[in-house]
Each structure stands twice: as structure tokens, then as C-alpha cells.
Amino acid sequence: MIENRLTRLAALSLPALLLCACRGGSAPAAVPYAYAAPLQALRLPAVRRTVASGKIKYIIIIIQENRTLNNLFLGFKGARTATYGYNLHNQKIPLKPVVLETAWDLQHNYEGFINSCNGTGKIPGTNCRMNGFDDQHWNCSTPGFPKCPIKNPPYSYVPNVETKPYFAMGKLYVLADEFFASDFDTSSFVAHQYMIAGVNPKSSANYPETVWGCPGGAADKTDALGKNRKLYKFALVPCWDPPTLADELDEAGVSWAYYASKVKAPPSLACGTSLGPDVSKGRAGIWSAYQAIKHICYGPDWNNNVFSPSTEFFAHLSSGNLRHVSWVTPTYANSDHGGSGSKTGPSWVASVVNAVGKSKYWSSSAIFILWDDSGGWYDPAPPAYLDNDGLGFRVPLLIISPYAVRGLVSHTHMEFGSVLKFVEDQFGLARLGASDTRAKSPAPCCFDFTKPARTYVSIAAPFDATYFRSQPLDERAPDDN
Fold this sequence. Notes:
- It is globular and about 55 Å long.
- It is an alpha/beta fold.
- The chain starts with a helix and ends in a 12-residue tail after the last helix.
- The strands form five sheets. The protein has an eight-stranded mixed β-sheet, sandwiched between helices. Strands 8-9-10 form a three-stranded antiparallel β-sheet, with no helix packed on it.
- The protein is built from 14 helices and 17 strands.
């Protein structure tokens, strides 16, 4: 079915894609905790005709943690970065190098965004001056944590000796320097909902108290956004049923998979085919955005399409069973998250990219690498106010494909929904929400389908897939904020 669908899409494509000019009220009601309605009861958007190249059949979305573009890509040629910022007193603060492997973290939640943005608008977090990063919290120099390496930890960048694999990808393919989080509250939980559904269900904010969704039950609450970004504490049960990209893919007969790490949690906190643990599958506490989607958490898709650990991706790839759309998330150690005490994130990403590049799937693949929120690190680019939930701070986006424009720094304004729009357009799917409807697709700017597929060039990194396959299991959640 998938080949026929792609053939029909190719017949609709334009002779050539033009490259864009770019260079170098009250709180929402709580959701009751109950078994989901059958999938066929969902109101999926109508399938839409679209313009696609017909050349992309496999899309891999690699989601890393908590870094701004300025923090990871300072000094990248052609990218708009800054070597200094300003604090609340409008004092110039030169950025200092801070390694990836910190044992401490920065504030990254609703309050952290509002403080760092230091906006002048009547609605919190609007008209950002981007000079309040010293008005957030960090846990170094507190009991139990090491002393801060610099006076103003948010005003820092990762030294290039640790980000070489990312720089190499950007130089060979595409780095987008105008890519923003679709949500402003810098929560991984909310960000990942945008990456599977293009929406923030029930306008949630911050992070669930215990797990990532339905298995936590009615006691597991998260905050909610009311009118004008008023925050309602613990107002929602993070378990809901919006249409997701997975539902559209299922309907269209397009295969998909979500690869996520197992996190330490009681066996009762598990998705499965019924309300209760699915211990036989080892699925207790999978760090997957689909845990918050009732009909997937407790339906057949969970066992068929959600895999753990994330290294299962390598097995599927080598056995010839790569799904047409894949989400790949890291362990905490491999996530780039502040506080992980590790610097293996760039190698992890390179190992996934290299595995695809050396496989039979390369000539028909597109890989998107993005970071789900800012993590509290400084960035000079003020986000636009598009709706009550967004936009959030600027984060990196790398695009790897044999059709990606070589060495392009894209200045096209994009957000999380841009990646969803690209997927939707390749497979003729409908828009899901505000984010993917309004967002610009990276296809016209960042791809050139008029040229033949480029031969893959391997990305050098300290660790390869063999290392990650044998890496001890890390059951810490990649993010808890």
C-alpha cells in the first residue's frame, strides 16, 4: 500500500521544487482517567492531496534534550549566534564555555521561560527582551551539587571539541537557525505532544508529577494554561485522545515506530492492551509521548509500534524492518541534557545517522534532528507570540538527507510543526493542529529533489553503534521537567 501511495503522490509533484532564499478565560477541565474510545471513533482530519517529491519514503525524527541553538552551535559559519548576552541590569555578559557533562541543571519550565524572556507585553512571556536568564534558578553551588564553573551558568556554550559531530552534520547537510519550539513553557512533555500530534492537548503546562501520561492515573496531575497564559497548578490529568500522526499513518497504511528508553517506575505504571501492567513486554515506564494518548497506550499500537530500548532501532534497520516514520529518543546519558554527567549525546546521534547512511534506506530517507526545549541555556533570538502556547525559545534543527542542500544554513522561520508538515506532505496526510497548519515546511528551502541522491559520508564521532548497543541500561528519565 505504501508504494502505491507514494507513486500517486509523485504524480502530483511539481517538475521542480524552488529553493527559498536562505543562506550560508479559565483553566481547561481535567481529563477523566478512563479507557479510550475505539480508534474508529476518533475524528481524523480528511486526507488531503499534496505536493511531494515521491523520493522520500523513510523519515527518522531524532529528539534530543534541552539545548538552544546558541548553546550548541556558537560560531557555526553562517548561523546567527551571539558571543554575549545581557542580564536584567542590561549588563553585557560574555558567554563562557561549559562542557556537556555537567552534574547540575538549569531551570526549564513555565517560570523559567517567563523570567528569561523578561517580556514587556501584558501577556506573560511576550515581547521578550531575552535579558532575564540570570533571573532563573540553577542547582550548582547548592548542597549536594558541585560548584558552578562560571558566575552566570545560563550564559554559556558547549565547546566545539564536544560538538564536532553536530558541526560536521551541519556542514555536510542543513542547519536551520530559525527553528523554534512550538510551546513556550520549555517542558519536554508538552514538546513531545507537539511532535506526535501538532497540538498541546487541553493546554497542559510543565511536567506530570509521576509519569508521562495515562498509567499514572487520576493522581498524576500536570499544570494547565488558562487565558492569557495564567497558570493553573495541577489542574489536568495528562491522559487524552487527540488525533495523532500515528493515527493518520495507520489509516493510510504507512508503518511507524517510536523508540524510547525504559525508565525506572513501578510495574503498575505501564501501558498495555488493558488497564494495568504489561510486564511480559517489559513496558513499565517507557519514556514515550504516546503514553499520554489513551487509545495508543491501551490499544494494539502500543505493543506493535512502541519499542524499548531505543537501540532497537539498529536491529530493525539491519534486519530490513525500518518503519516509514520513526521517532528516536535517547537515554538520559545520551540526551545532551544538563545534569546527565555525560557527553555521549553527539556520538549517539551520529551513530543513528551513520546507521541510516550506510543502509539500503539512505537514498530514500530524510532525518530530522532536533532538541525539544531550551533547557534554560541562553539564546538571543526572541520568539514570536503566535498563540497562548507559543512560540518557545530557539532550538537547533539539523536535516540530513541525500537530497538536503549541502552546507546550507536555513534562515526560514520554522517550528516543531514544520517537521510534522514535512511528514504529512510526503504521505498525503491532513494537518493535525495549529502548529503544523501554520508552520513552514522545510521541503522548499532545505531539499533539492531535482538532483540525484548524494553518496553518504560518515560522521566521525568518539563512540559508535556498537558502544551504544552494549551500554549499560540507564533507567533515569531523559527529562523530569
